[in-house]
User: Fold these one by one.
Assistant:
Number 1:
Amino acid sequence: MFDYAAAPPPNVLTRALRVAPKVSATLIMLALSAVWLGPIILIVMTSVKSNQAFLAGPFALPTSPTLAPYISVWQSLKFGSLLANSLLYATAGSALAVLLALVPAFALSRMEVPGKKIIFGLLLTGLMLPQQTVLIPLYDTLRALNLLDTKIGLIIVHGAYGMPAQILILRGFMTAIPREIEKAAYLEGASDFQVFWKIMLPLSRPGILVGYTLNFIAIWKEFVFGLVFLSNESNFPVTVGMLKLNSDRYMAVFNLPAAGLVISQIPIIILFILTYRQLSGGSFVGAVKG
């Protein structure tokens, strides 16, 4: 019989070979994290430096941090107004996109609609259209409706442009809902509208939240629509308003654009913190009892 107690311990080379894959994976993850976090850390460091300190050492740690760039950007660009506009566009535009997508997503996921695949494919063509291809038609439409250079006009554009992505997300989510719930409701005499309103919508809340959050972030970062359809500075979102920081007056200033970028990302960070638990939570736990 083999004596395990008398077996020699693994040598250093064997241990190194066992640990090598884990060490390599850890080093790769650290390198990828540095690539992703490096620019963010550099922007934050730049935003709390004076411009002279940045020019003296762009990658050096700030020795005398200051909030003067934040105060200057906030006052000179009326950043509070820009943030309020972006918040309005992202909140209302995302809500409109979800509302427009709910009924089509329900019909395409739970009903036997003639030509359902063709309709679904046509609706998704909006995802394949770059913004540049729809600028002229949208511009002419907004001008004909007297909605050009208005907040409501831009909200409608964001809602319509975001609807295809919401249909894709909500249809996939509603398709995954167990059909036993729906059949039980029909057996109790529920109508299609009651099934949609009282069953599908509550169970689709995580999917709605995912779609809303993704669309909110997309609208918050959007630049082209705001630049083309708005001319009044009082209607500018934060992405368009920050163009002033790229003018000749600020070409030699680096801390002010960095401060503006940091401020503009705070609402997105807050949104992620508020919705993370709901986004990662379960969806149908307890919905069906076997």
Note: Confidence is low (pLDDT under 50) at residues 282-290.
Number 2:
Amino acid sequence: MITRRSALGFLAAASALPSRALADVAPPRNEIRDSLAKRFVDAGAVGTFVGYKVDDYMIIASDTVRSGEGKLPASTFKVPNSLIAMETGVVQDPDKDVFPWDGVKRPMEAWNKDHTLRSAIAASAVPVYQEIARRIGQERMQKYVDLFEYGNRDIGGGIDQFWLTGNLRIDPIEQIDFLDRLRRKALPISQRSQDLVCDILPVTKVGDAVIRAKSGLVSAKGDEPSLGWMVGWAEKGGASTVFALNVDCREPRHVADRMTLTQACLSDIGAI
């Protein structure tokens, strides 16, 4: 079980243990690798990468500060949003329940059509997930965000905006904690919901490795650049590595670099 303090207790941003933490759980080994930080420097970007090598019980991070800083999750919240949709019955079948297009033309052409949950997460269709959040409602949404101990658990800022422009914040260590529990089907909800959401996560194959991941992009605001996320887990030869990357996207190429950087970092730590 990963916890913020036991996983990277030496990080400047480490804080109190979540309520699920157990006093007698030994902390994972951990280390900072300059080679990971260099990946961002070489790309002309500022960001962070954290990987949890499950079989080695090892946390490997690129830095000691940004890896513990909370950020808006943006579309990485589509993972818990999908789980909550399944668990509450807002979605019964990720391949059969259809969310009709509302007819509003948006810049992302892939959003301008009907979607199932599977196609919506693949296209990262924000309007679909905003409708899902409205159907879930504030009370049920708060209940499950609390159950998942997801980030700072603050869903203020609008039921269809809190993960995009509102109050919700999550850091890379918390992302890994949440995703590892999903990977192990250890979240406090039905196994069916967890199985189905794991199945619809976008997949990238790299050689004999499989990466299940969700991207996210926080819009630029004022002097702050866009923020890109890539979170998920990699599987190779029976070994699993859970990861979280975020990067400031000051140039359009940095948005595309999210997966490139992720794969480079995963390769550096022997995960793919």
Note: Confidence is low (pLDDT under 50) at residues 8-25.
